[in-house]
Structure formats: C-alpha cells, structure tokens
UniProtKB/TrEMBL annotation, chain A:
It is found in: Cell membrane. The keyword Transferase does not apply. Residues 178-193 have a biased composition (Basic and acidic residues). Its EC number is 7.1.1.-. Belongs to the complex I subunit 6 family. Residues 166-203 are annotated as: Disordered. This is NADH-quinone oxidoreductase subunit J. Keywords: Cell membrane, Membrane, NAD, Oxidoreductase, Quinone, Transmembrane, Transmembrane helix. It comes from the Bacteria. It comes from Chromohalobacter beijerinckii. It is an enzyme of class 7 (translocase). It holds the Pfam family Oxidored_q3. It is a multi-pass membrane protein. The gene is nuoJ.
UniProtKB/TrEMBL annotation, chain B:
It is a multi-pass membrane protein. GO terms for molecular function: NADH dehydrogenase (quinone) (non-electrogenic) activity. NDH-1 shuttles electrons from NADH, via FMN and iron-sulfur (Fe-S) centers, to quinones in the respiratory chain. The immediate electron acceptor for the enzyme in this species is believed to be ubiquinone. Couples the redox reaction to proton translocation (for every two electrons transferred, four hydrogen ions are translocated across the cytoplasmic membrane), and thus conserves the redox energy in a proton gradient. This subunit may bind ubiquinone. Keywords: Cell membrane, Membrane, NAD, Oxidoreductase, Quinone, Translocase, Transmembrane, Transmembrane helix, Ubiquinone. This is NADH-quinone oxidoreductase subunit H. PROSITE patterns: COMPLEX1_ND1_1, COMPLEX1_ND1_2. The lineage of its organism: Bacteria, Pseudomonadati, Pseudomonadota, Gammaproteobacteria, Oceanospirillales.
Amino acid sequence: MEIAFYLSAVVAVLATLGVVTGRHPVHALLYLIVSLIAVAMVFFALGAPFAGALEIIVYAGAIMVLFVFVVMMLNLGEAAAQQERAWLRLSTWLGPAILSGVLLLVLLVTLIGADVGGRIEGETLTAKAVGTLLFGPYLVVVELAAMLLLAALVAASHLGRSEAHDEAHAVRQVPGKRTADGRGRAASERSLGDDTSSEENSR
Amino acid sequence: MSWWTPQVEAIAFALFQALVILIAAVGAGALLTMVERRLLGLWQDRHGPNRVGPFGVLQILADMLKILFKEDWIPPFADRIFFVLAPAIAMASLLLSFMIIPITPSWGVADLHIGLLFFFAMAGINVYAVLFGGWSSGNKYALLGAMRASAQTLSYEVFMGLSLMGVVAMAGSFNMREIVAAQETIWFIVPQFFGFCTFLVAGIAVTHRHPFDQPEAEQELADGYHVEYSGMKWGMFFIGEYVGIVLVSALMVTLFLGGWHGPWLPPIVWFLLKTTVFVGFFVLLRAALPRPRYDAVMSFGWKICLPLTLINLLVTGALILVFSPAGG
C-alpha cells in the first residue's frame, strides 16, 4: 500500500505541475483530471475507498466535465497560448515559487522532526462507517452544507430563468409596438405567431 | 513444481477469470453489431445482413476486416493526443466496469465493497471519451455532438445514482454480491419498480442509445462526435457502445433481477439468459421508437425522472424505517 501511496502522490504532484505550466488550456485541464484521479488513488491507498470513489465521481466525473465543457466552447487558440507564455516568465513565478518553497520546507521539517504518528497502513473505512459519522456527530454540518448547496441551486435557477423570461417577453412585445406605430411590416414578421396576425385582423 | 502453491493457483485462476470475462465482454459487444442489425431487420420487416455465411453470422468477420484494413487517418487539424486518447477512454472505462459484476457465485473479477460506486466513477470518466473526441476533431458537428452528449450524460447521471440508492438502502450495501444475496427471496424489481424504470432510462441515455442518441443524430449532426474518426478508432467507439449495452444489461440483471438466482438451471445460464433479454429489449427500443427532440430529452430527465427517483428514495427510506427501525 505504501508503494501505491507514493506512486500516486508523485503522479498527483507532477500532474499538478503540468496544470500550472501547461500553455494549452484543454491540455492543462487534462492534467488536472489526472491529478484528481491520482488524489483519489491516494485515498484508496490510505484505506478510504469511499472518499476515493466520491472524488472521482464528483470532481473528475462532474465538475471537471463542466470545466472542460466551458473551455471547449470558448474556442481558445494561439492567442491564449501566447498570453499564457507571457505569464510564465521567470520574473512572474519566481517570487511566489520562493515563498511556497519556504512553506514546503516548514512542512517537511515539521513532518520529519515531530512524530505525527500517522502511518500509511490503516484499517479500511467502509461506506457504512462514513455514513454513520456523517449522519451522527456531523449531522448539523451536513444539513448546513445541504442548505448552502440549495441556495446556490436556487440562485443559479433564478439567474438562468430571468434571461429566458425576458427574451420571451421581448419577442411578444416587439411586434405589438410596431403595430401601434403604424409602420409597415415585412412579410416575415407576419409569420411570427397567431398573436400578431389576430391583432392585424382586429384592426 | 515447488512454486505451484495454492496461492499461485488462486492468482492464476483469478487472472484466467478476468481474461475470460474481458474477452467475453468484447466478444459480446462485437457480436452485437451483427445481431442488432439482424434483429432490426426482423422487427422492421426487412432482411438485414444475410449474405455472408449462414444467416449472415460471418458479417462480423467482414466488418472486422474492413475496419482493420481501413486507413487509420488523423485529420491534420485535429489535436493528436486527445484524438487518440478519446476512443481508448471509451472502451477502457466501460470494460473496467465489468470488474464489479458478479456473474455466478464463484465467477467475478473483483469483490469491492464500494462496488456500485466504482461503476458510477467509470461512467463519469466515460463522458470524457465523447467530450475529448468531439473537441479534438476540430469539426463543428463533432463539437456540437460532444456538447449534447456531455450535457445529456451529466443530467442523466444525476438521477442514475439516485435511482439505485433505493436498492442500496434495501440491501444495506454497495457490494454487488451482497445486493444479489439480498434478492434471494424477492427480486428488487418488485419493491423498487420506479428505481428500475428510471435506471433503465438513465442507462440508455448514458450509453447514448436510441432514443437518446441526439449526440450522434445523423440527420442533424452527420454522426456527431465521431464524424472525423475512421478505421479501428471509430471501431472502438462503435464496439464501446455495444459493450455499454451489455454492461447496463448486466447491471440491471444484477441489481433488479436477482443476478444468477433462478430455479432449475445453473446460475451462469440464468445470468446470461436475463442479460440477453435486456440486450434484446435495447434493440427493440431502437427498432420501435422515434428520436425525440433534444430539449424534450433534457426536460424529461430533469422534470420527470429526477423527482420520481427522489420520491422513490423518500418512500423507500420511510418504509425501511417503519418496518425495521433497528436495521442499521
């Protein structure tokens, strides 16, 4: 299990580096997907297959699909790669890299110096154990998270709805206004719908 | 022969099982390409492929020869890595899912205790095959097909998971063998009928089978996401679709129809028989139904199937609590 843990951890780190340095947005996303799957493998190696499976289902299988979906629709070309290249200059990434390096050093010293007591070999947590914990001691947290998600859902539904509603309104309004103006209408507008033609008949 | 210990024998037998199941799955997928056209012919009152060999059974050989000897062309405007990766994902993710299906009491590749979740994970990965294939082709029809496919699959995966939660709650486990064992007395199709219906719909939609094949609608999209593919890469998408049918049929048999349980006949015969019936049903659907409009497909999923699965799950949970409150 230790070999599996270290191998997938190395893959995760390398893939994440690929995300940062990748110039092509979709290729970077592929690295991110590989990184997420590697993290799921880390969960499997640590004896938490439920968390690992959920990581793949939720992150790799659903959220990343939407990311890829949007990036593919943007039709990013050579210009985006140029911009990315400009951002990846030494002067840009040197400062943050040094700071992160210091943080990594601190983490390593803490891990090596102090006995954290964590071992990779552990007992395997079943889905049942996770469920009992989630709906036992952590019930309030689960409920709060559910409410947060519900709020996001309602907001998204509202944002999506208002635009469609306005459009439907606009289609119905525009021919009516022109009728009131008494201007001549193109023949194509007459075929817009029954509303328009009935209005015309009544005049 | 000192190295031939019982442990080595167990490993060898497990490897042999895995290989046989893999080859059987691919073989069934390939065979289905021919069987489907024959059945479509039968149900639509025409002949179907009946020239090569007796009853056209050698048609599959002819098709294979054609696919393998076709030029394996990668368009110059395509993104090479993704273009090659996409068909591999399409086949591999579906074939890996066969791992969790218990075929008989002694046959089956892996006995994961997160069994069902593994299938959801693989179904989630499978979306990328269509998405990458459609995008990397550099073709607007392919891109449109990929967009439709990913939106459709994401929507239907939401309630595919929920439709099976009733089964999981009744069996008390994600493990496929325990789910089959829980159906010793009554098949889950009876108490979980709505779960069965919604999973059937979701299964068809996730494999992009007719009547949910808008992603590859010939009339509007000229074949959708695999329009630029040829040769064996196209063949992998094609056979992957049939492997998906076999997989969803086998899953439905395992989850709702008691798996290998049945009187008189040996377990393997029951399993194969039930799976064949479902595969036939998939073909019959394609023969009988017209293709609905894309927005109708989406609103059907979100407005009918999703509420149905939620109500089903709610009622199942309530009944389990009423009849076995200490069952946890």
